[in-house]
User: Fold this.
Amino acid sequence: MRTHTQSIERLVNKFSSLGGVGKKTAMRYAYSIVSMSKHDVEDFCDALIDVKNKLQYCSVCATFAESAVCEICQSRASDTVCVVSFPKDVLSIERAGGYKGLYHVLHGTISPLDGRGPDELRIKELLQRLQNGNFGEVILATNPDIEGEATSMYISRLIKPLGIKVSRIAQGISMGSDIEFVDEVTLARAIDNRVEF
Ligand SMILES: [Zn+2]
Assistant:
């Protein structure tokens, strides 16, 4: 039995396709849209298209940017690079404050089970960047789960021969957690208390 109209059903399905959105939440979102004015809905659609048109990856660190080089790469001079899996992790660390260095986004983790090897990540770009620049330290801030640990381990082995200090965030973040959801104080402390590989 169909509980919504066909168009609402379609919208609910679209929302449920988003990460972390369950059927109930999707339904709530869909009905919020239905109750909005036509102008507000158009504005909402425009925001979706706009972000897709404007967003690109920073040519240096590969986080989201609205120009060829992101604001962080443009405005910071640092010899420290913090390596994260996803652009949203840059945001989490920035929000935690404290860290004033540069970033490098891998766009994933090594996951043999999902058929994702090192070549699928931006590891080659990281090594090139490290070889061409003057860097003193690389902080590996992938998630403290099995894939994140394996990815950090793999990268640390590649960086060590370059003579650059490699450290791993550790303290205070429990195994299996997601950087994105770690509270700001814990995350800031984890970066401060990083341990050398
Ligand atoms: Zn950048």
In short: Residues 18 and 121 are 23 Å apart (CA to CA). The longest strand covers residues 80-84. The mean pLDDT is 90.
